[in-house]
Amino acid sequence: MNLYKIGGSKIFIGTRVALPTDLIVELADFVPQEPEWLPINGWTNAGALGDAREAITQNFIDADRTLTIGGTMNSAEMPNVFAPLPNDPGQIRLLQAMAGCANYAFKVEWGAGCVSESVVTISVASPGVITWPGGHALEPNSPVVFTPNSGTLPTGLVAGTVYYVREAGLTPTTFTVSASPGGAAIATTAAGTATTITATASPAGQTDLFYGLAMSRVKNGGEANTAQMLNASIKPNTNIIEI
Question: Among positive and negative, which fits the CA dihedral 42, 44, 50, 55?
Answer without folding.
Answer: negative
